[in-house]
């Protein structure tokens, strides 16, 4: 995967430590491998026991790149998970601090009208990072909330800790976890949009955006929502 990267080799993350949630498969695994290919040690955070084998496979690929990997299985919906992930990352990788955090973990949104969506689904949808369209008003609302948090955290953390915070706004990406509720008509409508690239994006393309945002070259980009959508927009 990393061998296909179009980013210049001069973009280095050597000596950095990264946490990637949802790192056992799909976009998360792709980002983890891209970061590792540029010198970062990576903690792979995943949820279910069924994902352990996939996480171990990604960790083995990271080791082949000459980097260290940590495996952390945790429920990210719990209030205590943050400190647990941090402590395990520092302990397993034997590093003094963490440089990069990629909040990639997500769940499939409820593809149904607002009046058919219960509050429990609203809570789960609030962790999603992709925009929605028809029958996805809750999805769109949580996306807007995420972008608001990004702007405020960027201001607060830059001022106090000299950190940058950005969001990657994805279009349709070809992954192995596409929600079953998405109909063929929905896909066709997106691919036919005049502003779209008329293809699905790849995991590698998203991973390269993440790697650049994690590098020193993006130091003047802060509080932004960076589109990685091939020009696709949802209405």
Automatic annotation (TrEMBL):
<dbReference type="InterPro" id="IPR036291">
    <property type="entry name" value="NAD(P)-bd_dom_sf"/>
</dbReference>
<dbReference type="GO" id="GO:0044550">
    <property type="term" value="P:secondary metabolite biosynthetic process"/>
</dbReference>
<dbReference type="InterPro" id="IPR020904">
    <property type="entry name" value="Sc_DH/Rdtase_CS"/>
</dbReference>
<keyword id="KW-0560">Oxidoreductase</keyword>
<keyword id="KW-0521">NADP</keyword>
<dbReference type="InterPro" id="IPR002347">
    <property type="entry name" value="SDR_fam"/>
</dbReference>
<dbReference type="Pfam" id="PF00106">
    <property type="entry name" value="adh_short"/>
</dbReference>
<protein>
    <submittedName>
        <fullName>NAD(P)-binding protein</fullName>
    </submittedName>
</protein>
<comment type="similarity">
    <text>Belongs to the short-chain dehydrogenases/reductases (SDR) family.</text>
</comment>
<dbReference type="Pfam" id="PF13561">
    <property type="entry name" value="adh_short_C2"/>
</dbReference>
<dbReference type="GO" id="GO:0016614">
    <property type="term" value="F:oxidoreductase activity, acting on CH-OH group of donors"/>
</dbReference>
